[in-house]
Design a protein that fits this description.
The chain is α+β, with helices and mostly antiparallel strands and 270 residues long. The chain has five helices and eleven strands, in the order H-H-H-E-E-E-E-H-E-E-E-E-E-E-E-H. Strands 1, 2, 3, 4, 5, 6, 7 and 8 form an eight-stranded mixed beta sheet that branches. Its cofactor is Mg(2+); Mn(2+).
Length: 270
């Protein structure tokens, strides 16, 4: 009987939580698996039709509150391509939740030296957004997808370049097994920051920007670690504010969006 149970447990292991999970990460796994983003029908024909019907607006279904901001007069100009980023969380030595971040290579032609989450555009062969995010993370920083327990996806964000970016939350249960190996063509350095920082008002500032006649807020977080200073802003900051709000189950003490226009428009590295 015991041997049968052992064989059954072994066969079910891929469906079970990783045995190395700490109690905190185990609880977070269960919490986030219950999270359901608003229904979107991202990939079907009805979604494309709805986007075309609202092509004169920034649509809430792709990360923004609906407004009268024109994206383009021709519906064909608003067919956003898809991308995914990995919000890789792990438990720090002090028991806090931390997120893996990268500083883009200074040799890149666009957004060089900016802080971003690992990720990129969807490619043919990717099974889903989790597959895209973990594949990109392996290519950029050498993170083995087998080490990441993908638990949920968040609402997509629309980048400044009209790219639909899907945040994927994954948990790194064995942080010691991850040995960062940044691809020098894309990544200058890999570091981590406390997730809770993004729902605190410390080391944060916001600026009001304008795009196509509408105003929006963009957030900046200053962070220093190992005698290096980083500025986390734009799309990356916006995604992490949302992720931290969901993980810690409380809103930030500051306004995420401009209350007058409710446009959550952000810069993007993707």
């Amino acid at each position: 009987m015991i041997s049968i149970l052992r064989r059954l447990t072994t066969s079910l292991q891929p469906l079970m939580d990783p045995p190395t999970s700490s109690p905190r990460l185990l609880a977070l796994t269960h919490q986030l698996r219950l999270y359901k983003p608003p229904p979107l029908s991202w990939d079907d024909d009805s979604e494309e039709q709805r986007i075309e019907e609202t092509a004169g607006k920034v649509v809430s279904q792709v990360g923004f509150a609906e407004s009268k901001t024109p994206i383009g007069r021709d519906p064909e100009t608003f067919r956003p391509k898809r991308a995914a980023v990995l919000i890789c969380l792990f438990e720090g030595d002090g028991g806090d939740l931390r997120v893996v971040l990268t500083k883009r290579s200074s040799g890149l032609s666009t957004h060089s030296g900016e802080v971003s989450l690992p990720g990129g555009k969807t490619e043919e062969g990717d099974k889903d957004d989790g597959d895209t995010a973990t594949r990109e993370a392996k290519e950029e920083i050498g993170l083995d997808p087998k080490l990441v327990n993908v638990v949920t996806v968040l609402e997509p964000f629309l980048s400044k370049h009209l790219l639909r970016v899907v945040p994927v939350i994954g948990l790194l249960n064995d942080k010691e097994a991850f040995k960062p190996a940044p691809n020098p063509a894309e990544v200058e350095s890999v570091f981590d920051a406390p997730l809770e920082m993004f729902i605190k008002d410390e080391n944060r500032r916001a600026e009001e920007r304008e795009w196509m006649g509408n105003k929006y807020l963009i957030h900046f977080f200053d962070y220093e670690t190992n005698n290096k200073k980083y500025m986390i802003w734009g799309l990356t900051a916006g995604i992490l504010i949302r992720a931290a709000s969901i993980v810690y189950e409380r809103p930030p003490p500051f306004v995420e969006q401009n209350p007058s226009h409710k446009v959550h428009f952000t810069s993007s590295s993707y």
